[in-house]
From TrEMBL:
Pathway: Amino-acid biosynthesis; L-methionine biosynthesis via de novo pathway; L-homoserine from L-aspartate: step 1/3; Amino-acid biosynthesis; L-threonine biosynthesis; L-threonine from L-aspartate: step 3/5; Amino-acid biosynthesis; L-methionine biosynthesis via de novo pathway; L-homoserine from L-aspartate: step 3/3; Amino-acid biosynthesis; L-threonine biosynthesis; L-threonine from L-aspartate: step 1/5. Its cofactor is a metal cation. Keywords: Amino-acid biosynthesis, ATP-binding, Kinase, Lysine biosynthesis, Metal-binding, Methionine biosynthesis, Multifunctional enzyme, NAD, NADP, Nucleotide-binding, Oxidoreductase, Sodium, Threonine biosynthesis, Transferase. The lineage of its organism: Bacteria, Pseudomonadati, Bacteroidota, Bacteroidia, Marinilabiliales. In the C-terminal section; belongs to the homoserine dehydrogenase family. In the N-terminal section; belongs to the aspartokinase family. PANTHER family: HOMOSERINE DEHYDROGENASE, PTHR43070. PROSITE patterns: ACT, ASPARTOKINASE, HOMOSER_DHGENASE. GO terms for molecular function: aspartate kinase activity; ATP binding; homoserine dehydrogenase activity; metal ion binding; NADP binding. It catalyses: L-aspartate + ATP = 4-phospho-L-aspartate + ADP; L-homoserine + NAD(+) = L-aspartate 4-semialdehyde + NADH + H(+); L-homoserine + NADP(+) = L-aspartate 4-semialdehyde + NADPH + H(+). GO terms for biological process: homoserine biosynthetic process; lysine biosynthetic process via diaminopimelate; methionine biosynthetic process; threonine biosynthetic process. Homotetramer. Residues 313-388 form the ACT domain. This is Aspartate kinase.
Length: 811
């Protein structure tokens, strides 16, 4: 025998009831059906009762609508007029009862518990009679068999009496039998109910007493999901759960099944299947006691509850005093306040509990009353309520005795800046629950889902400033590589924001990198880079990365606040890391403390790996004692390209056109770009260098650099064509070449300037825009480590930035 329970949505309309008929017709064995009220009817009944108790005459029209909804269903389900009339007559007593009780409540302006239970159960009585007629099922009145008593202000099922009565029904069951869910009665015969969602419980009680082979809960979702699908679009249906896992998940926000339902089925080892009435072919979720092979993931699902408050009672006078918890929980129980989570540290200094927010003030008053003396004596120093909180829990039987579960959980939320206010884990190790701010729920669920591999890919949310030479190439690479990254690295890079000087474009769901620049031109929202930063922080997305492809100090100035908000930063812009040492250090320290990333590999040598090997040397205990380098792609290109026919002024323009120079080439020609790179190299090598420690000889005389505009500079720089050619010729005659080099000594000083090198020097053969870095260290003391290759250019730089972005994702 099978028990099938259909919820309110499953029987919410005549069409849906026809679907139920199809499902029933496909059953081979005897079935017992349990139905809820038609969708939304219980809420309407409670509303009508409340309006009546408030003396609001509107209750009558609410009742009228309830009657009409049922009459319409009957008309739609039964085409035969005689049959229609038969069903109308069958439900007439329920309509009469509804009218008379609500009228009584309206007249005396009082809604007793007894009246409320009678009114709220009428929906199931109506739906069950209508559906039983439609299915030709034998109808049973659940109130006769399901017996309750009151304990702690709630109706509890009298299991012994119920089981005895239900066993007597067994011989009377038909091929198709139907019971209303939710409703019951007490010893005196008064109508009672099993609590909202109680129809599931009715079905489980019947399954246990009738010794059913299977309990099927038919609802409007495919089953238990790995997380709330409204928050996590990648959440998927869990195929199998143990009874204990299902109990934990159903308690924690996943409103798929009413929690008490699990116990009767568990005790009789009856499997439960969650099925979707609107998608009956999908297997749904099977809940049973069978061991799973292969061993399933440690975590089966993530639950969350919103609209809760964290209430903390604290005071030194609580330490070592027995009975405090007993009094606290008794005072809450007396007010029928349900405690969702409890957390107390071994110091006993405070006890934190989570309750529904609409009960927080009632809870405060109850605790203040109970602990008046302790509060007056300051043994308890206060009761603090944090509202707008949420509880998140990870659930899975396989967490038991598996080390690292909480480490992974709290590491992943912590790295994303989600503060954890309280934690609870039972010794069963089945559930780890923690309390966070409600605004962080989406972020927390996303990172947990990813961390525990419940998702089949990770996501990185990208915010890019700069769509010029480097930024535009980066966008091309993202567009071209995204499919490969997804297929081979299971990494999805989502471009969420793009900004330039005039404004920004944002899309929570991600935008197409190949058309983003075009769309920014068309639809940009005006705003500064600070506005862009505020939007990034407000969006509060997990795994966010800010990418700077500008050359702007204003953009560099927002890194600290982004890192403070747990947004990683990847930058091609050298300004931040070459500004004061304290700024550079604070940025790096913040990233380290928060477990996020601040990467700037392209700041030196563009796409060449220079910073990472230096970091490796330093971290492995080596000491860098000397560095010599050619660090300017632009200046190396210039000295290599100058000839009798190619004067300096022309080659400067070429370097810009080839994407080697800075947006303003004077930054290269002044030596500033090389000074910045030298500072970064020195700092990464362990030297605390400031700009003043770098002695610089500009590539062109200072008087040219002091000219008021770039246009004027470009006009006047022609005057230098002849002197530069002269210098080149002189060097050539001596068998030498010009190089713009940088040298860092172990005294922590750096020198930057133009030099002449002969063919014995490693710089001599450095072609085109190439860079070279020679590193002498305690390990590399005789022969320096050499890193050499393209040191500038949009393509290599964009590739370097992209590599840093992927490193953030840690794949
Ligand atoms: N070229 C190379 O070989 C290498 C370059 N780099 C670095 O890459 C960075 C980018 O260089 P490049 O692409 O040539 O520069 P571009 O001038 O071509 O592009 C700069 C971009 O930054 C935007 N921008 C500038 N200021 C702001 C601001 N205040 N707010 C918002 N957006 C701003 C500009 O916006 P808008 O489009 O609206 O003008 C533009 O899109 C530089 O820092 C450079 O040093 C690093 C290594 C090598
Ligand atoms: N302008 C720079 C580009 C990279 O930082 C250079 O010429 O090297």
């Amino acid at each position: 025998m099978k028990i099938l329970k259909f919820g309110g949505t499953s029987v919410g309309s005549a069409d849906n009831i026809r679907r139920v008929k199809d499902i029933i017709q496909n059953q081979n064995n005897r079935v017992v059906i349990v139905v809820s009220a038609l969708g939304g009817i219980t809420d309407r009944l409670i509303k009508a009762a409340t309006l009546a108790a408030e003396g609001d005459g509107q209750y009558a029209s609410e009742v009228k609508q309830i009657v009409e909804i049922h009459q319409d269903s009957i008309k739609s389900l039964f085409s035969d007029e005689q049959k229609q009339q038969e069903v109308f007559d069958m439900v007439a007593p329920e309509f009469d009862e509804l009218n008379s009780i609500t009228k009584g409540v309206f007249l005396i302006r009082e809604l007793s518990r007894k009246s409320l239970e009678s009114i709220s159960g009428i929906g199931e009585r109506l739906s069950s009679k209508i559906i039983a007629s439609f299915l030709n099922a034998k109808w049973f009145d659940s109130r006769k068999y399901i017996k309750t008593y009151v304990e702690y202000g709630r109706s509890q099922v009298d299991l012994e009496a119920t089981n005895k009565l239900l066993l007597e029904v067994v011989p009377k069951l038909d091929k198709i039998s139907l019971f209303p869910g939710f409703i019951s009665s007490n010893k005196k015969g008064d109508n009672t109910t099993l609590g909202r969602g109680g129809s599931d419980y009715t079905a489980s009680l019947l399954a246990a007493s009738f010794d059913a082979d299977m309990l099927e809960i038919w609802t409007d979702v495919n089953g238990f999901m790995t997380a709330d699908p409204k928050v996590i679009s990648r959440a998927y249906c869990i195929e199998h759960l143990s009874y204990a896992e299902a109990m934990e998940l159903s308690h924690f926000g996943a409103k798929v099944i009413y929690p008490p339902t699990i116990l009767p089925a568990y005790q009789k080892k009856i499997p439960i299947t969650i099925k979707n009435t609107f998608n009956p072919e999908t297997p749904g979720t099977l809940i049973d006691g069978q061991k799973e092979t292969p061993k399933p993931r440690q975590i089966k699902g993530i639950s969350s509850i919103k609209n809760v408050s964290l209430l903390t009672v604290h005071g030194m006078g609580m330490v070592g005093v027995s009975g405090i918890s007993m009094r606290l929980f008794a005072s809450l129980a007396a007010e029928e306040i349900n405690v969702i989570l409890i957390s107390q540290a071994s110091s006993e200094n405070s006890i934190s509990i989570v309750i529904e927010s609409d009960q927080s003030e009632k809870a405060r008053k109850a605790i203040e009353k109970e602990f008046k003396r302790e509060l007056d004596d300051r043994h308890i120093s206060g009761i603090v309520i944090d509202d707008q909180m949420a509880v998140v829990a990870i659930v899975g039987e396989n967490m038991k005795h598996t080390t690292g579960m909480s480490g992974l959980l709290f590491n992943s939320v912590g790295k994303n800046g989600v503060n954890v206010y309280a934690i609870a884990q039972g010794a069963s190790e089945l559930n780890i629950s923690f309390v966070i701010k409600e605004r962080d729920i989406k972020k927390a669920l996303n990172v947990i889902h990813e961390s525990f591999f419940l998702s089949d890919y990770s996501r990185l949310n990208l915010f890019l400033v700069g769509k010029g030479t480097v930024g535009s190439k980066l966008l091309n690479k993202i567009a071209a590589q995204s499919e490969k990254l997804m297929n081979e690295n299971r990494l999805k890079i989502r471009l969420i924001g793009l900004a330039g000087r005039k404004g920004m474009l944002l899309n929570n769901e991600g935008m197409d990198a190949s058309t983003a620049i075009e769309n920014l031109e068309k639809e940009s929202i005006p705003g500064t880079v600070e506005d862009f930063r505020d939007r990034i922080i407000d969006m509060n997305l997990a795994n966010s990365v800010f990418v700077d492809c500008s050359a702007s100090g204003e953009v560099a100035a927002i890194y600290q606040s982004l890192l403070d908000a747990n947004v990683s930063v990847v930058t091609a812009n050298k300004i931040a890391s070459s500004s004061s040492y304290s700024t550079y250090k604070k940025l790096k320290d913040t990233a380290r403390e928060k477990g996020i990333r601040f990467f700037f590999e392209t700041n030196v040598g563009a796409g060449l790996p220079i910073i990472a090997p230096i970091n490796d040397l330093v971290r492995s205990g080596d000491k860098i004692v000397r560095l010599e380098a050619v660090l300017s792609g632009t200046l190396n290109y210039i000295v290599n390209t100058l000839s009798e026919d190619k004067p300096l002024s022309e080659v400067i323009i070429e370097a810009k056109e080839k994407g080697f120079s800075e947006p303003d080439p004077r930054v290269d020609l002044s030596g500033t770009d090389v000074v910045r790179k030298s500072l970064i190299l020195a700092r990464e090598s362990g030297y605390n260098l400031e700009e003043a420690d770098v002695q610089v000889e500009p590539f062109v005389p200072q008087e040219y650099l002091d000219l008021p505009s770039l246009e004027e500079f470009m006009r006047k720089v022609k005057e230098l064509d002849a002197p530069f050619e002269e210098r080149r010729q002189k060097a050539l005659k001596e068998g030498k070449r010009l190089r713009y080099g940088a040298r860092l000594t172990s005294e922590g000083k750096a020198v930057v300037g133009l030099m002449e090198v002969d063919r014995t020097h490693p710089f001599y053969d450095l072609e085109g825009s190439n860079n070279i870095v020679l590193i002498w260290s305690e390990h590399y003391f005789e022969h320096p480590m050499q890193i050499k290759g393209y040191g500038a250019g949009a393509d290599v730089t964009a590739a370097g930035v992209f590599a840093d972005i992927i490193k953030v994702a840690n794949v």
